[in-house]
Amino acid sequence: MKEHNVDCQKYRKSTHLAGIDVETIVAEMGKCILTIKDAYYARGIDVSGNKTDAYFIDFEEDVKSMVINSINRKTITDIVKIQKSLDSASARNIGNWIGVVIELSFDSSIKMMNKVVGGIRVRSTQLIKQKQPINQERFTKALEAIKSGKFDKDKLINDYILTEEQIAQL
After folding, report:
1. Is 69 within a domain?
2. Parent domain of 143
3. Assuming Cys at both sites, which of 57, 64, 90, 125 could form a disulfide with 17, CB separation 3.0 to 4.6 Å?
């Protein structure tokens, strides 16, 4: 069967989640939000034809495993520290990452071997939102949105910069 008008990257061979996968998920779903099912370090894993020693995470959702670079490990550690109220050492323990929800985005400016190739970034928006105390003005506007029947959880999270926990307090 022939297919026309199809993304030229759809049928490429890849063993692990890549930037193009995240970019496609975001285009189709609006966001790429995934739950960590497993986090581990492994040696000699085939990553698109190269044997690699690396950190990996698997997701509860039906997507490929992901290689986690040092920048994304740091961001996940910061998110875990806040979400699970852990000290820095405990948050760096990848066994504590299981069950944590993260958002991935495609960053076209990421370089590899001095070439701009694009790649995946764990978004730190959750981290920023959770560090911000709820202020009275945002709280009042959120309450008005709920009372007027315009309650939309995504709108409250994005427009009023509220976390799920802060919404639960409303």
Report:
1. yes
2. 136-169
3. 64
pTM of the model: 0.69
Q: State the pairing for strand pair 111-112/115-116.
A: antiparallel
Same domain? For 140 and 116 the reply is no
**Phi, psi of 26, rounded to the nearest 5 degrees:** -65, -40
Domain count, the chain: 2
In this prediction, residue 155 has a pLDDT band, given cuts at 50, 70 and 90, of low
Calpha distance 59→39 (Å, rounded): 9
- Asked whether residue 88 falls in the same domain as residue 110, the answer is yes
Of 81, 128, 75, nearest to 102 by C-alpha is 75
* pLDDT tens per residue, range 58-94: 999 999 999 999 999 999 999 998 888 889 999 999 9
pLDDT in tens, 93-107: 999 999 998 999 988
Dihedral angle computed from the Cα positions of residues 35, 163, 75 and 78, in that order, rounded to the nearest 10 degrees: -110
Instruction: Report whether 44 contacts 51 (CB < 8 A).
Output: yes
Assess whether 40 and 80 both reside in one domain.
Answer: yes
| Inside any domain, residue 11 | no
